[in-house]
Amino acid sequence: MKIIMLGIVGAGKGTQAKKLAGHTGIVHISTGDIFREAVKNKTELGLKAQEIMEDGGLVPDDIVIGIVKERLEESDTDTGYILDGFPRTINQAEKFDKTNNDVDAVFYISIPEKESVRRLKGRRLCGSCKRQYNIYLNKNINGKCPQCGGELIERADDKEDTVKIRIKNYIKQTKPLIDYYRKKGKLIEIDGYRKIDKVFKSIVDSLPNN
Ligand code: AP5
Ligand code: MG
Hints:
By secondary structure, this protein is an alpha/beta fold. It contains 9 helices and 8 strands. The strands form 2 sheets. Strands 2-3-1-4-8 form a 5-stranded parallel sheet, sandwiched between helices. A 3-stranded antiparallel sheet has the order 6-5-7. Strand 5 (123-126) and strand 6 form a beta hairpin. 30% of the residues are buried. Residues 7, 9-15, 31-32, 35, 52-53, 57-59, 64, 85-86, 88, 92, 119-120, 122-123, 132, 134, 137, 157, 166, 192, 195-196, 199 line the site of BIS(adenosine)-5'-pentaphosphate. BIS(adenosine)-5'-pentaphosphate binds at residues 7, 9-15, 31-32, 35, 52-53, 57-59, 64, 85-86, 88, 92, 119-120, 122-123, 132, 134, 137, 157, 166, 192, 195-196, 199.
Protein backbone atom coordinates (compact mmCIF):
# COMPACT_ATOMS: atom_id res chain seq x y z
CA MET A 1 0.00 0.00 0.00
CA LYS A 2 1.47 3.32 -1.12
CA ILE A 3 -0.12 6.35 0.45
CA ILE A 4 0.41 10.10 0.34
CA MET A 5 -0.85 12.49 3.03
CA LEU A 6 -1.73 15.93 1.75
CA GLY A 7 -3.07 18.98 3.57
CA ILE A 8 -2.36 22.46 4.88
CA VAL A 9 0.16 22.91 7.70
CA GLY A 10 -1.31 21.55 10.91
CA ALA A 11 -4.02 19.56 9.09
CA GLY A 12 -3.00 16.44 10.99
CA LYS A 13 -0.88 14.69 8.34
CA GLY A 14 1.73 13.58 10.86
CA THR A 15 -0.83 12.66 13.53
CA GLN A 16 -2.85 10.50 11.14
CA ALA A 17 0.17 9.04 9.32
CA LYS A 18 1.57 7.78 12.64
CA LYS A 19 -1.73 6.18 13.59
CA LEU A 20 -2.07 4.61 10.16
CA ALA A 21 1.47 3.23 10.33
CA GLY A 22 0.60 1.65 13.70
CA HIS A 23 -2.61 0.20 12.28
CA THR A 24 -1.20 -1.18 9.02
CA GLY A 25 2.46 -1.82 9.84
CA ILE A 26 3.45 0.28 6.84
CA VAL A 27 6.36 2.65 7.34
CA HIS A 28 5.68 6.38 7.90
CA ILE A 29 8.08 8.69 6.08
CA SER A 30 7.95 12.40 6.93
CA THR A 31 10.25 14.67 4.95
CA GLY A 32 9.84 17.30 7.67
CA ASP A 33 11.10 14.78 10.28
CA ILE A 34 14.05 13.84 8.03
CA PHE A 35 15.02 17.50 7.72
CA ARG A 36 14.54 18.22 11.46
CA GLU A 37 16.78 15.26 12.32
CA ALA A 38 19.41 16.52 9.86
CA VAL A 39 19.24 20.00 11.41
CA LYS A 40 19.64 18.50 14.89
CA ASN A 41 22.67 16.47 13.81
CA LYS A 42 24.15 19.41 11.89
CA THR A 43 24.69 17.31 8.77
CA GLU A 44 25.37 18.89 5.38
CA LEU A 45 21.66 18.53 4.55
CA GLY A 46 20.68 20.04 7.90
CA LEU A 47 22.90 23.07 7.37
CA LYS A 48 21.25 23.64 3.98
CA ALA A 49 17.71 23.15 5.27
CA GLN A 50 17.78 24.94 8.64
CA GLU A 51 17.43 28.54 7.56
CA ILE A 52 14.86 27.73 4.88
CA MET A 53 12.68 25.84 7.35
CA GLU A 54 12.94 28.45 10.08
CA ASP A 55 11.89 31.09 7.54
CA GLY A 56 8.88 28.99 6.55
CA GLY A 57 10.15 28.28 3.02
CA LEU A 58 10.41 25.06 1.07
CA VAL A 59 13.64 23.11 0.67
CA PRO A 60 14.63 23.07 -3.05
CA ASP A 61 12.92 20.34 -5.08
CA ASP A 62 16.10 18.60 -6.27
CA ILE A 63 17.31 18.12 -2.68
CA VAL A 64 13.94 16.77 -1.47
CA ILE A 65 13.50 14.44 -4.45
CA GLY A 66 16.99 13.00 -3.90
CA ILE A 67 16.30 12.41 -0.18
CA VAL A 68 12.97 10.67 -0.83
CA LYS A 69 14.41 8.52 -3.62
CA GLU A 70 17.20 7.36 -1.32
CA ARG A 71 14.78 6.69 1.56
CA LEU A 72 12.46 4.62 -0.65
CA GLU A 73 15.38 2.35 -1.57
CA GLU A 74 15.48 1.04 2.02
CA SER A 75 14.00 -2.41 2.59
CA ASP A 76 11.36 -1.30 5.11
CA THR A 77 9.44 0.24 2.20
CA ASP A 78 9.07 -3.12 0.40
CA THR A 79 5.46 -3.44 1.61
CA GLY A 80 4.68 0.20 0.90
CA TYR A 81 4.92 3.57 2.58
CA ILE A 82 2.96 6.49 3.98
CA LEU A 83 4.48 9.70 2.68
CA ASP A 84 3.83 12.72 4.89
CA GLY A 85 4.85 16.14 3.56
CA PHE A 86 5.93 14.91 0.13
CA PRO A 87 5.28 15.75 -2.66
CA ARG A 88 4.74 19.42 -1.94
CA THR A 89 5.09 21.04 -5.36
CA ILE A 90 3.82 20.03 -8.80
CA ASN A 91 7.43 19.57 -9.89
CA GLN A 92 8.08 17.14 -7.00
CA ALA A 93 4.90 15.23 -7.85
CA GLU A 94 5.70 14.96 -11.56
CA LYS A 95 9.24 13.77 -10.93
CA PHE A 96 8.05 11.34 -8.25
CA ASP A 97 5.25 9.94 -10.43
CA LYS A 98 7.67 9.19 -13.26
CA THR A 99 9.20 6.45 -11.13
CA ASN A 100 6.36 5.78 -8.64
CA ASN A 101 3.16 6.02 -10.65
CA ASP A 102 1.49 3.28 -8.64
CA VAL A 103 0.45 5.27 -5.58
CA ASP A 104 -2.79 3.75 -4.19
CA ALA A 105 -4.34 6.73 -2.45
CA VAL A 106 -3.72 10.38 -1.69
CA PHE A 107 -5.53 11.40 1.50
CA TYR A 108 -6.28 15.10 1.42
CA ILE A 109 -7.04 16.14 5.00
CA SER A 110 -8.96 19.40 4.86
CA ILE A 111 -9.30 21.91 7.70
CA PRO A 112 -10.08 25.65 7.70
CA GLU A 113 -7.05 27.97 7.58
CA LYS A 114 -7.95 29.46 10.98
CA GLU A 115 -7.80 26.01 12.56
CA SER A 116 -4.34 25.46 11.05
CA VAL A 117 -3.06 28.58 12.87
CA ARG A 118 -4.74 27.55 16.14
CA ARG A 119 -3.33 24.01 16.09
CA LEU A 120 0.23 25.11 15.42
CA LYS A 121 0.02 27.69 18.19
CA GLY A 122 -0.87 24.87 20.55
CA ARG A 123 1.57 22.22 19.34
CA ARG A 124 4.28 21.05 21.74
CA LEU A 125 6.92 18.37 21.23
CA CYS A 126 8.82 16.40 23.81
CA GLY A 127 12.51 17.21 23.43
CA SER A 128 13.42 13.69 24.64
CA CYS A 129 10.95 11.12 23.28
CA LYS A 130 9.56 13.33 20.44
CA ARG A 131 5.93 12.63 21.34
CA GLN A 132 3.63 15.32 20.12
CA TYR A 133 0.99 17.16 22.15
CA ASN A 134 -1.37 20.06 21.79
CA ILE A 135 -2.21 22.36 24.69
CA TYR A 136 -5.83 22.55 23.48
CA LEU A 137 -6.21 18.77 23.45
CA ASN A 138 -3.96 17.76 26.33
CA LYS A 139 -5.13 20.27 28.93
CA ASN A 140 -3.14 18.74 31.80
CA ILE A 141 0.34 19.03 30.34
CA ASN A 142 2.45 21.51 32.21
CA GLY A 143 5.68 21.96 30.30
CA LYS A 144 6.66 18.31 30.86
CA CYS A 145 6.01 15.21 28.77
CA PRO A 146 3.40 13.03 30.58
CA GLN A 147 5.11 9.90 29.17
CA CYS A 148 8.80 10.46 29.90
CA GLY A 149 9.03 13.73 31.84
CA GLY A 150 11.09 15.42 29.10
CA GLU A 151 10.89 19.15 28.42
CA LEU A 152 8.09 20.20 26.06
CA ILE A 153 9.22 22.56 23.33
CA GLU A 154 7.69 24.47 20.42
CA ARG A 155 8.78 23.79 16.86
CA ALA A 156 11.07 26.54 15.55
CA ASP A 157 8.74 27.12 12.57
CA ASP A 158 5.55 27.30 14.65
CA LYS A 159 6.00 31.00 15.46
CA GLU A 160 2.96 32.97 14.30
CA ASP A 161 4.76 34.93 11.56
CA THR A 162 6.44 31.81 10.21
CA VAL A 163 3.15 29.93 10.19
CA LYS A 164 1.65 32.71 8.04
CA ILE A 165 4.47 32.27 5.51
CA ARG A 166 4.08 28.48 5.57
CA ILE A 167 0.36 28.83 4.87
CA LYS A 168 1.03 31.22 1.97
CA ASN A 169 3.54 28.77 0.52
CA TYR A 170 1.07 25.93 0.95
CA ILE A 171 -1.63 27.84 -0.96
CA LYS A 172 0.72 28.80 -3.77
CA GLN A 173 2.85 25.68 -4.15
CA THR A 174 1.14 22.68 -2.54
CA LYS A 175 -2.61 23.28 -2.93
CA PRO A 176 -2.45 22.70 -6.73
CA LEU A 177 -1.62 19.07 -5.90
CA ILE A 178 -5.24 18.55 -4.84
CA ASP A 179 -6.42 18.91 -8.43
CA TYR A 180 -3.36 17.12 -9.76
CA TYR A 181 -4.22 13.95 -7.83
CA ARG A 182 -7.97 14.38 -8.26
CA LYS A 183 -7.46 14.28 -12.04
CA LYS A 184 -5.47 11.07 -11.62
CA GLY A 185 -8.39 9.57 -9.67
CA LYS A 186 -6.24 9.07 -6.57
CA LEU A 187 -7.61 11.76 -4.26
CA ILE A 188 -9.63 10.84 -1.17
CA GLU A 189 -10.87 13.90 0.69
CA ILE A 190 -11.15 13.58 4.47
CA ASP A 191 -12.77 16.19 6.71
CA GLY A 192 -9.94 16.84 9.19
CA TYR A 193 -11.89 19.32 11.29
CA ARG A 194 -13.11 16.65 13.70
CA LYS A 195 -11.74 14.67 16.63
CA ILE A 196 -8.51 12.79 15.83
CA ASP A 197 -10.16 9.36 16.18
CA LYS A 198 -13.08 10.29 13.93
CA VAL A 199 -10.69 11.52 11.24
CA PHE A 200 -8.71 8.32 11.59
CA LYS A 201 -11.80 6.12 11.25
CA SER A 202 -12.69 7.89 7.99
CA ILE A 203 -9.19 7.27 6.68
CA VAL A 204 -9.24 3.58 7.60
CA ASP A 205 -12.75 3.16 6.13
CA SER A 206 -11.57 4.78 2.88
CA LEU A 207 -8.44 2.67 2.43
CA PRO A 208 -8.44 1.06 -1.01
CA ASN A 209 -9.53 -2.63 -0.87
CA ASN A 210 -11.04 -2.13 2.57
P1 AP5 B 1 6.52 19.40 7.85
O1 AP5 B 1 7.12 18.84 9.07
O2 AP5 B 1 5.95 18.47 6.84
O3 AP5 B 1 5.46 20.48 8.29
P2 AP5 B 1 4.04 20.89 7.70
O4 AP5 B 1 3.60 20.39 6.43
O5 AP5 B 1 4.08 22.38 7.82
O6 AP5 B 1 3.06 20.19 8.56
P3 AP5 B 1 2.95 20.11 10.08
O7 AP5 B 1 3.87 19.06 10.59
O8 AP5 B 1 3.06 21.48 10.70
O9 AP5 B 1 1.43 19.70 10.22
P4 AP5 B 1 0.72 18.27 10.17
O10 AP5 B 1 -0.28 18.28 9.08
O11 AP5 B 1 1.71 17.17 10.17
O12 AP5 B 1 -0.08 18.34 11.52
P5 AP5 B 1 0.16 17.56 12.90
O13 AP5 B 1 -0.32 16.16 12.77
O14 AP5 B 1 1.55 17.79 13.38
O15 AP5 B 1 7.60 20.30 7.11
C1 AP5 B 1 8.39 21.22 7.81
C2 AP5 B 1 9.27 21.99 6.84
O16 AP5 B 1 10.20 21.09 6.20
C3 AP5 B 1 8.56 22.69 5.69
O17 AP5 B 1 8.04 23.93 6.05
C4 AP5 B 1 9.69 22.78 4.66
O18 AP5 B 1 10.58 23.81 4.96
C5 AP5 B 1 10.41 21.45 4.85
N1 AP5 B 1 9.86 20.41 3.97
C6 AP5 B 1 9.27 19.25 4.37
N2 AP5 B 1 8.88 18.54 3.30
C7 AP5 B 1 9.21 19.26 2.21
C8 AP5 B 1 9.05 19.06 0.82
N3 AP5 B 1 8.46 17.96 0.33
N4 AP5 B 1 9.51 20.01 -0.02
C9 AP5 B 1 10.14 21.13 0.44
N5 AP5 B 1 10.32 21.37 1.74
C10 AP5 B 1 9.86 20.46 2.63
O19 AP5 B 1 -0.86 18.35 13.86
C11 AP5 B 1 -0.62 19.70 14.22
C12 AP5 B 1 -1.10 19.93 15.65
O20 AP5 B 1 -2.52 19.78 15.70
C13 AP5 B 1 -0.53 18.95 16.69
O21 AP5 B 1 -0.32 19.61 17.90
C14 AP5 B 1 -1.64 17.89 16.83
O22 AP5 B 1 -1.63 17.31 18.10
C15 AP5 B 1 -2.89 18.73 16.58
N6 AP5 B 1 -3.94 17.98 15.92
C16 AP5 B 1 -3.83 17.02 14.94
N7 AP5 B 1 -5.04 16.57 14.56
C17 AP5 B 1 -5.97 17.25 15.31
C18 AP5 B 1 -7.39 17.22 15.36
N8 AP5 B 1 -8.12 16.39 14.59
N9 AP5 B 1 -8.01 18.05 16.23
C19 AP5 B 1 -7.28 18.91 17.03
N10 AP5 B 1 -5.92 18.98 17.02
C20 AP5 B 1 -5.27 18.14 16.16
MG1 MG C 1 3.82 17.06 10.28
